[in-house]
Each structure stands twice: as structure tokens, then as C-alpha cells.
């Protein structure tokens, strides 16, 4: 049951114009998706400005992704308690404030702290916007509305790297954050005008203990991985953080079993084989894929001599191929089933990542474009199939909780991917000993990341042989 000052205007017998709300939510999704990719091509320029090594800038990305993973589980509960309008406005305000703080940062620690503020806002934009649409729109309009707002999520990664590279060359890296300010002001004013203030009167108590255990484990594991490269933590400290992280996650599992349905994420979700395998597959398969937006722009600029704008443009084939692949997913799964498609495609994604070890400065541009496109094609098929498999059997109360956990796992795995790749790259750089061997260090890192990704195929191998083909219901989950 929901209550809101705007509830009378939501009566189904009165025609409503939902378009302003859709544009508002789409704009929030665009801001979040754009900022997830626009920073990658600017890392070398940031490093020069802040007096840091470009190979040790991963915390700028990790801070944003990890913060989003931490905040996503609480965003829906806050919206139900405080109201969707207040939380969505707060999200835009924090995102815009974080952008201003990022642009004004003079040191790497300040920039990382500012990215945390930005990540808090970014984490709430899509979940709260999607929740508002679910509550405000008639059921028959929800699917086309979701299709509408996912378009900016595809456009953001398409233009983000190129726009970031161009802004770095034409102005400075500070402008990749400052461009969010006018968008944020417009979005904030539009939120006060068009966002309904919906909240829930039937709100379960928030599982604070479970939230603390889960987020503590995620933070500890991420810091441990980053401690191997950028933070230069002693090995004993890294080991303590790893143990603490695993203990926290194990304790959460025991806690959730005791709390039952009152847990932050009920263990009933894992009774479903499709969800259990889908979430674990998402976690480990995305670690490799999540590192590529960090590794590729660095490789192109640090080792192959590309400018930031050129490195950004080289990311366009990845995004275009990802959009093209959407037309192939449903026919493939209908013909071969989830098990065969995911096992084979996971190996192909891993091989395509490892194949970047063959990239040198001598290869022609057309071959490099095809190379990038093939990776984007297989990677997008992987994401779409994994998401559809994970969500397709969820019903009723489990749907919201399961979707929230999947969103958190996606952000966490990308954060772990960047941290892991940076740690491996730092290790190979140290072993090889000098700047002249940096390209070889990148090549070795791609091979390791590709092997890690391919290993996730064993998870999807656990799907039953008679996995049913895509139904009309599960087709609706093909949103990434």
C-alpha cells in the first residue's frame, strides 16, 4: 500500500501525461551511465595533473563503483520511507555536488573522496527512478517505459569515452565533471515539478545488521585487492582484510538464514537454480569484463601513443557492436538454450580479452576496430544472457529483492574487476622492472584476465541440460 500527496492525480481513470517523468528518469540514467565511462579515457591526464602514475589511478573508478554497490541495497527502502521525490532530488543534488568536488580536487585522495559523494548520488538515480515508474505508471505502460529509459543507458557508454577524450584535449579533465552541473540543475528543478512523492505505508524494518555485514565484506575485499597495487599495503594487512571480508560475507549468510524473509536479501532467492547460478556467474564473469574499460584506454594512451580523443573513439566500436548484438540474443537462446550459449560465450569473452595481448602499435586501424567490435559483441551477449537467466524465474516479493541484489553484484564485480586487473598489472610491471616493458606487462595482464573470465564458464556448466528456451516473460528482462 502506498500513500502520497500526488496519489489522487495517479488515479487510473484520469488520463495522465507520464512523458515528463520518463524523460526525468531517463536523464538520471544517462548521467549515471555517462559518468561510469567518461572518466576512463581521462585517467592519464588526471595522473599528470595530480602528479600520479597513470597505472595507479584505478581508485578513481573503484571508489565510484564500490560506493554504488554499497548504496543500491538501501536506496529502495529509503525511497519507500522518505518519499521518491525527496530521495531522487537528493540523488541528483549529491551527484552534482560530487561532480563539483571532483573538478576542484587538487590531490588524488580528495578526488577519490569526491567520487564517493558522486557515487552515493549515482547509486540512487536508477533504482529510485525505476521504483517510481513501477508505482506511478499503469502496468500496461511499464514495459515500454522501461525500454524508453534504457536507451540513454546505451548512449552514455557510446559517447562517454569519446566525449571524455575530447574534453581533456580541448579544455581539461575537470570538464568531464563540470558538464554534469547544468544537467544536475535542470534535473533538480524538474524533479520538484514532475516527480511524484510516493512512499510505502507497509514498510518492513531495515536489516541494519545484515547491511553492515554485507557492505563491510565488500569494502574489505576491494581494499585488499587495491592494496596490492595502488595502496601499497603490507601483505599481512592485505591478508587480514581478505580474511575479514570473507568472514563478514559468511556471517551475513548465517544471519540471513536466521532472519528469513526479514533479511536484507533472503536466502530463498538462492533456492532457484537459475538465480543462484546467474548471480554467481554475473559476479565472476563480470570481473574480467569490468576491467576492460579501465585497461583498454590506458593501453592505447600509455603504450600505443594514442591521444585521449583517439582512445575514446576506439571505444565506439565496442559500444556499437554491443547494441548490434541485442538482435542475436533471443534467437540464440531459443535455439541452443541458456546453458550452451553461456558456456560457449563465456569462453569466447575470455578469449577475446586474452587476444588483446596480441595488440601492438603496428597493426592497422581497421583491424583494431574489428578487434574492439568483436569484444563488444560477445561481451554484450554475455551481459544480456546472464541478466535474463538470473531474473526470469523471480516472482512476487522476490522480484524486487532479487533485482536489487543483482544490481549490487554487477557494481561490485566491476569494482573488483578494476582492482584485480590493476593488481595484476602492477605485479607484472614490478616483475618486468622498467617502463620499456610496460606493453609486455599489459599483454600478460590481458592473458590473466581472459583466463579468469573463461573460468566462469564452469559456473554456467551447472545449469541443467534441459534448460527451457526464452519465453515471452523472460524476454522482457533483456534490458542491458
TrEMBL record:
GO terms for molecular function: transmembrane transporter activity. The chain crosses the membrane at residues 21-43, 55-75, 87-106, 112-129, 141-160, 172-192, 204-225, 237-256, 277-299, 311-329, 341-359, 365-385, 405-429, 441-461. It is a multi-pass membrane protein. GO terms for cellular component: plasma membrane. InterPro entries: EmrB-like, MFS, MFS_dom, MFS_trans_sf. NCBIfam families: efflux_EmrB, PRK10504.1. Residues 21-468 form the Major facilitator superfamily (MFS) profile domain. Pfam families: MFS_1. Keywords: Cell membrane, Membrane, Transmembrane, Transmembrane helix, Transport. Its main location: membrane. This is MFS transporter. It is found in: Cell membrane.
Amino acid at each position: 500500500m502506498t500513500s502520497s500527496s500526488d496519489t489522487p492525480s495517479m488515479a487510473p481513470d484520469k488520463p495522465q501525461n507520464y512523458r515528463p517523468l520518463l524523460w526525468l528518469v531517463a536523464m538520471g540514467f544517462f548521467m549515471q551511465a555517462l559518468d561510469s565511462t567518461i572518466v576512463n579515457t581521462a585517467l592519464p591526464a588526471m595522473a599528470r595533473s595530480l602528479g600520479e602514475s597513470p597505472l595507479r589511478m584505478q581508485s578513481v573508478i573503484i571508489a565510484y563503483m564500490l560506493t554504488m554497490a554499497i548504496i543500491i541495497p538501501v536506496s529502495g527502502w529509503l525511497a519507500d520511507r522518505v518519499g521518491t521525490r525527496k530521495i531522487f532530488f537528493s540523488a541528483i543534488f549529491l551527484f552534482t555536488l560530487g561532480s563539483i568536488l571532483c573538478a576542484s580536487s587538487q590531490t588524488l585522495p580528495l578526488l577519490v573522496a569526491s567520487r564517493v559523494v558522486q557515487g552515493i548520488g549515482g547509486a540512487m538515480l536508477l533504482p529510485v527512478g525505476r521504483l517510481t515508474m513501477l508505482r506511478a505508471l499503469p502496468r500496461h505502460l511499464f514495459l515500454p517505459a522501461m525500454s524508453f529509459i534504457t536507451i540513454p543507458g546505451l548512449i552514455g557508454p557510446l559517447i562517454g569515452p569519446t566525449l571524455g577524450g575530447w574534453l581533456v584535449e580541448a579544455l581539461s579533465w575537470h570538464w568531464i565533471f563540470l558538464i554534469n552541473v547544468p544537467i544536475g540543475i535542470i534535473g533538480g528543478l524538474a524533479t520538484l515539478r514532475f516527480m511524484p512523492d510516493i512512499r510505502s505505508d507497509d514498510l518492513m524494518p531495515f536489516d541494519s545488521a545484515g547491511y553492515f555485514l554485507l557492505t563491510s565484506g565488500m569494502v574489505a575485499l576491494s581494499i585488499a585487492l587495491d592494496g596490492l597495487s595502488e595502496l601499497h599495503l603490507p601483505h599481512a594487512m592485505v591478508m587480514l582484510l581478505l580474511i575479514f571480508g570473507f568472514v563478514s560475507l559468511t556471517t551475513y549468510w548465517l544471519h540471513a538464514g536466521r532472519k528469513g524473509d526479514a533479511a536484507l536479501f533472503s536466502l530463498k532467492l538462492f533456492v532457484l537454480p537459475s538465480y543462484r547460478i546467474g548471480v554467481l556467474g554475473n559476479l565472476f564473469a563480470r570481473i574480467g569484463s569490468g576491467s576492460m574499460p579501465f585497461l583498454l584506454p590506458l593501453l592505447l594512451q600509455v603504450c600505443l601513443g594514442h591521444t585521449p580523443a583517439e582512445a575514446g573513439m576506439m571505444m565506439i566500436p565496442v559500444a556499437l557492436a554491443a547494441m548490434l548484438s541485442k538482435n542475436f540474443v533471443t534467437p540464440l537462446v531459443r535455439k541452443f538454450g541458456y546453458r550452451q550459449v553461456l558456456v560457449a560465450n563465456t569462453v569466447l569473452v575470455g578469449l577475446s580479452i586474452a587476444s588483446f595481448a596480441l595488440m601492438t602499435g603496428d597493426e592497422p586501424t581497421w583491424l583494431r576496430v574489428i578487434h574492439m567490435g568483436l569484444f563488444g559483441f560477445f561481451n554484450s551477449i554475455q551481459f544480456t544472457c546472464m541478466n535474463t537467466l538470473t531474473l526470469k524465474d523471480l516472482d512476487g516479493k522476490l522480484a524486487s529483492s532479487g533485482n536489487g541484489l543483482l544490481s549490487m553484484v554487477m557494481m561490485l564485480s566491476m569494482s573488483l574487476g578494476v582492482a584485480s586487473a590493476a593488481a595484476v598489472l602492477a605485479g607484472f610491471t614490478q616483475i618486468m622492472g622498467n617502463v620499456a616493458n610496460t606493453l609486455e606487462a599489459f599483454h600478460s595482464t590481458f592473458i590473466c584476465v581472459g583466463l579468469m573470465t573463461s573460468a566462469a564458464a564452469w559456473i554456467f556448466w551447472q545449469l541443467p541440460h534441459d534448460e527451457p528456451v526464452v519465453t515471452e516473460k523472460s524476454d522482457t528482462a533483456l534490458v542491458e
